[in-house]
Amino acid sequence: MNDADALRRSAAHVVVGDVSVPVLDDAAHHHLTRVLRLRSGDVVTVTDGAGAWRSCRFADGAIEIDGEVRLVARREASITIAFAIPKADRPEWIVQKLTELGVDRIVVLHAERSVVRWDDDRAAKHLVKLRRVVLEAIHQCRAVWLPSIEGPVDALAVLPGAVAAEPGGRSMRAGDRTIAVGPEGGWSHAELDAAADRVSLGSTVLRVETAALTACVRAVALDSGL
What we know:
This protein is of the alpha/beta class and 226 residues long.
């Protein structure tokens, strides 16, 4: 059985601090015992979120090692999706789906026309929540690499090293590793001028969350040669 099959067929998948000595934290223990209601002997795969994982067995509320540590290499050049913060709980949904799709880095932005802005206190609380969303998404999608989450940062600090999603731009290419999605009010002229280039995500006007996922899907597909 290859790595992908072993991860996919396990009864559960959780992130632990150290795969050499895997220990369930309170959240993972609750997930396995109360949510999934695993039985003794069920296979649980564990990962440190940095490419290492191994197979274990669930036993009396804990996990016992049942396989060697395996390592999955990260892609050579990381894929980053940066997006202007949308309203309500949409940032959580975006982060969940980007994690499932295999993005390496997520950056939340304050753009010139952003309606939603997080001050320091709100940013700290939101980032804690978003990192929890990442963990839950990793459990679901069986990935072994945790994406990093950064921000919020000013869009002008990111755009010089990114391509900006903008109607009328060129098609995405394999070398587009950082894609920035603006607010629903659009990028300002100064922000577009600062971007390394502009790329089109289609002929229609997309919501922030739709644009972010479209950019990620295309970047991952191009990276895979699809």
